[in-house]
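Recall the central idea of this unit: under ordinary conditions, the amino acid sequence of a chain determines the structure it adopts. In this exercise we apply that idea directly, starting from the sequence alone.
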Amino acid sequence: MSAFCGSTIKCKDTWIIDSGATHHMAPKEEYFSTIDKSFHIEGIALADGRKASSMGKGAVSAVIKSDNSGSVVKFKTENTLLVPDIKYGILSVKQLIENDREVLFNEKGCFIYDKTGNLLMEAKERDRLYVMHTEPMKESEVVLNSMVRKETKSESLDLWHRRMMHVSKHKILEMANANSVIGLNCKKSSPTPCDSCLAGKSTRQPFPKKPTDSVDKRTTILELVHSDLMGPIDVPSWGNKKYMLSIIDDASRYVFVRFLDNKGAALNEFKKWKTEIEKQTGKCLKRIRTDNGLEFCSKNWTAFCESTGIRHETTMTYTPQQNGIAERFNRTVLDLVRSQIQESNFPKKSWAELIFTATYIRNRVTNTHDNQKTPYELWTGKKPSVRHLRAIGCEVFVHIPKQKRFSKLSKRAESGILIGYALYGRGYRIWMPATQQVVESRDCVFSKNFLQKNHYPQKIMCMKVSKYNTSVTRLQMNIKMT
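Accordingly, the structure predicted from this sequence is:
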């Protein structure tokens, strides 16, 4: 046997994750909830060359103080040796693996999971070691709930697949392993086929790729944006929109969408987007790349680019592949929308709402441009959280403010269907079948995580947006106000 002994770490009650140790070892008897002192092992080799002996074996219970998250959790290990001659507790990687644990080492620390993918322990690197700080805890000891973090319940891959509007299950697992977002507590499991994805994303088999020169990635936002106009869609949206204008930043792949009545409105919408984004970011747009559509090659568009100093790059005639980033987004977002319609039986007139929601989610999902950081993080510099995501189409109870209730006996919540996320502020967009309105609210209770079918009328002339929460701004891009 071997164990680590020498270190510059001075904090007491420290445990070290050791890949060279054959057994868990504790230096103090107070760590043990049960111990058999008749068990002895001689000749345990320590890192400084000394030999040590175990004075017993049993179960260790302790409270971990996580340096990474600042949280406090309980842990218990069986078959741990009592070795008074060591300075720090030792957790053997070999013994952890034998007990159906998974141990992951990366630049952020050491993470220990159970066989279902739940995070059990985490250790921070210090002096080239992975350490945890603990306090002894007996089985009979009462630990205050306010000091102990409840174990985060991992949720199924299929549920997160629904919450992310049918984003690839492989991509979700990749993001969970890379900690690309906050709150993605997804169980590790083998992806299974999704019938809605098979129906909504079916494509021809790929052709062999030709070798191409590597493309130099831009690192400054607004240095180059890609734009495309999709439409007309055969079914007008609830706001009678027929076109979608997509704008994609090349450096971050962050996407903005606008919905239009006709092609002629593309320039005006782009001007409004440019003014808002340059004001918010403090940066100036330098180049835009589009196809050769007439909406992008008009005299007005050319005059706008010349007056603002923007260089307009266009594709060759009948060669949309040269604007591949925008074209690929159109395909990706429609795949997600078709899959969602297949899954939840939304009417086709909801396509604009679903595209906006799919774009919101896509900006929080990694892609081939950067497998570690999401477009949201590359655009804002902040890691996004996905804790608030729920399955689109699930049933929601929306709180009715006091000002909207007519008597003390009136009900305090209305049932609705989740359709997206608020554009400004933190809230949800919920479709209310009873009033045929879309409301935005933060005061929601999700009764079920799974989708409800056959709940939507197929003929809707117009939609209204109401504000149950006055702190949430109305979304006016694709909803016609009445």
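Residues 1-10, 138-152, 210-215, 449-482 have pLDDT under 50 and may be disordered.
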